[in-house]
Amino acid sequence: MTMQAMIDEWYPVGLFSQLDGAGRTTALMGEPIEVARDGDGKAKVTAGDGHVLPVRVRYGHVWSSLGAPKKELFPIPEADQPGRRFVDVGVVRVRCSPLRAVENFLDIAHFPFVHTDILGAEPHTEVQNYKVEIREQEDEVWATQVKFYQPQAAKSASGGITTEYMYRVPAPTCSVLYKTCPPRPSEWDVITLFVQPLAEDLCDVWPWMALFDDETAMTDLIHFQQTIFLQDRSILENQIPRLLPLDPGMEIPTRADLTSIAYRRWLKRHNYTYGAQLVAQ
């Protein structure tokens, strides 16, 4: 299976704040790597054979690549917005395809059933019509006008509200979610999913948030998001097949799955197939 298209992308490989000179050993697409700080305190990523890999430090994370990325790491303008709190949620290891992890993040219909009484609740299970597009200029998948009733949309929310979402996929294993910000209705809270592909069926998931919330303790913000993702993990680790099917006939979509359909089509277009299943088995 060709991997070159995804080899030349940027991936999260650790939290910059947690790095020291001793570093940490991890993996990227099946290859062992070491992530550390050099003598000047800068992030350094080294492949198993000793050669130094490209590095960026952004959104609280160290990013690297086994190849030669043809473009810079995608922008998140809110990361430079004054007054926001930036939350390094940490890491969750999941025995699933990195592409499955992203697709699950894009799925709205599971809220009432997996995140019951937090991000959704019965009988509010209907997914209203929303808009999905592949934006050609940015080369990104976007879903907009997504609305869903939520008992507790965020740690800062008091009582149930109808939350509006926008989803954005700027890279094969990353997604950015913009959602209603309860303390500041004119702004969006930003919740991201940065996925590090360890292997085709194993990944480290690094959620990160940029919020307007001056009240909630940082540990509570982290715990809230970890609770959500740990609920997702049990679903992800039981999905069959483990890899993400890209053949439209292998899994039957519903009207609520428009974002997933666009994501799979976009992956196929770019030959982003590491962690994908191309034909029925």
From TrEMBL:
<dbReference type="InterPro" id="IPR050584">
    <property type="entry name" value="Cholesterol_7-desaturase"/>
</dbReference>
<feature type="domain" description="Vanillate O-demethylase oxygenase-like C-terminal catalytic">
    <location>
        <begin position="94"/>
        <end position="269"/>
    </location>
</feature>
<protein>
    <submittedName>
        <fullName>Phenylpropionate dioxygenase-like ring-hydroxylating dioxygenase large terminal subunit</fullName>
    </submittedName>
</protein>
<keyword id="KW-0223">Dioxygenase</keyword>
<dbReference type="InterPro" id="IPR044043">
    <property type="entry name" value="VanA_C_cat"/>
</dbReference>
<dbReference type="GO" id="GO:0051213">
    <property type="term" value="F:dioxygenase activity"/>
</dbReference>
<dbReference type="Pfam" id="PF19112">
    <property type="entry name" value="VanA_C"/>
</dbReference>
<dbReference type="GO" id="GO:0051537">
    <property type="term" value="F:2 iron, 2 sulfur cluster binding"/>
</dbReference>
<keyword id="KW-0560">Oxidoreductase</keyword>
<dbReference type="InterPro" id="IPR036922">
    <property type="entry name" value="Rieske_2Fe-2S_sf"/>
</dbReference>
